[in-house]
């Protein structure tokens, strides 16, 4: 099977709290999976497990045939930088760096020479329609523009998997639609995508499958 991600019987406990109570989920290359569910149901925890930001209490996470649970901290950090792109609700841009440098930094961190990193960053900013703001600081951009920068940064190292945790959660509905269109376009050219959202309409538009979480478990899966 051509799975990019395989999550098998993953549990995650934080003290008494059971954040994930046994989740099994497989995501194929080129899929766009939306994760929905109430606050506290484990959506971000699942994304963090797949991103290698945290480790399961039990169960396995395998991405492109490599088992994250077996990786050292250093290997996990390399995996995060090279294979995963992350987009966050509140953008997580560096305020002291202009847009172009924010985007180029991801490539610098994996050893790409400065010129090459800047060229790729500029290409992405052009594709995402914000190249004219390349020298601006994040604080001077609108939310929608900041999220475009966030998406450009996430794509910098051509990740096997793009993870987006409520990428439209802090945006007005119009900018939210635009960011979703962007994610949809990326998926249509083959980018595998996992997206947490509270907006069912956006989920259905963008996703090939919608997975509903409740109490740390998958409650329902629907084809979109
Ligand atoms: N680092 C942590 N330490 C302790 N408890 C945590 C931690 N991360 C998550 N939890 C707990 O695990 C449960 C699942 O949290 P999670 O953030 O995955 O929910 P979510 O579905 O993303 O919610 P939201 O929609 O509000 O973002 C919650 O009860 C939360 O309090
Ligand atoms: Mg969350």
UniProtKB/TrEMBL annotation:
Pfam families with a match to the protein in the record: ABC_tran
This protein's UniProt keywords: ATP-binding, Nucleotide-binding, Transport
Segment forming the signal sequence: none
Domain ABC transporter: 5-223
Record SUPFAM superfamilies: P-loop containing nucleoside triphosphate hydrolases (SSF52540)
Listed InterPro entries: AAA+_ATPase (IPR003593), ABC_transporter-like_ATP-bd (IPR003439), ABC_transporter-like_CS (IPR017871), ABC_transpr_LolD-like (IPR015854), MacB-like_ATP-bd (IPR017911), P-loop_NTPase (IPR027417)
GO molecular function terms noted in the UniProt entry: ATP binding
Protein name: ABC transporter ATP-binding protein
Organism of this sequence: Microtetraspora glauca
